[in-house]
């Protein structure tokens, strides 16, 4: 049987919704300039968080398996929306930042590549509609 995920999203008031997730809950709202109250997360930006989270989990798991020494790790994503409706992200830049004094760049590159090319399902979904620019940046302390 195929894996299925169910989320239930309920309208609260104005432009605000409450959404369940298998592991928690969140509020979604539009910005005041778009008619909302700004009391929740923005749907399109949530997609970018999902992308960073999905790939980040892969990379963190691989860093653990490879016993890599990394002091800090973050993913910055910058995405461009189309001008026409329906507006969607058509250009997405993903930067993997690794911090540490003993970074194994070759193995970290492998971890990022495995996530980007093989494991991250959200990355694969983004590839269907966006031009992806993947960069890995090392900050040696």
From TrEMBL:
InterPro entries given in the database record: KH_dom-like_a/b, OsmC/Ohr_fam, OsmC/Ohrsf
Top-level taxon of the source organism: Bacteria
Matching PANTHER family: PROTEIN YHFA
Protein name: OsmC family protein
Species the sequence originates in: Galbibacter marinus
Lineage: Bacteria, Pseudomonadati, Bacteroidota, Flavobacteriia, Flavobacteriales
